[in-house]
Amino acid sequence: MKNSVMIDSQSAGREIQTVLSQIRFVLSFLGSSGYSINCK
């Protein structure tokens, strides 16, 4: 049981990292397009 929980936590951590990387990419893309200036 403990091993399965550890595997699940590791997979969840990897998914979170991939989502964060995608969000950073989108934010950087919007920032380069001048979206950040319009937010003010």
Explain what you see.
By secondary structure, the chain is an all-alpha fold. It is rod-shaped, with a radius of gyration of 16 Å. The chain is 90% helix and 0% strand.
List the helices and strands and how they pair.
Layout: H1 2-32, H2 35-39
Proportion of residues in β-strands = under 5%
Structural class, from secondary structure content? mainly alpha
- Tally of separate helices: 2
Gap between N and C termini: 50 Å
DSSP strand tally: 0
The coarse silhouette is: rod-shaped
Which regions contain 5 or more consecutive residues with pLDDT less than 50?
none
Using only CA atoms, what is the Rg?
16 Å
Share of residues in helices: over 70%
Mean pLDDT, to the nearest integer, reads 78
What is the element string, with H for helices and E for strands?
Answer: HH
Largest sheet: none
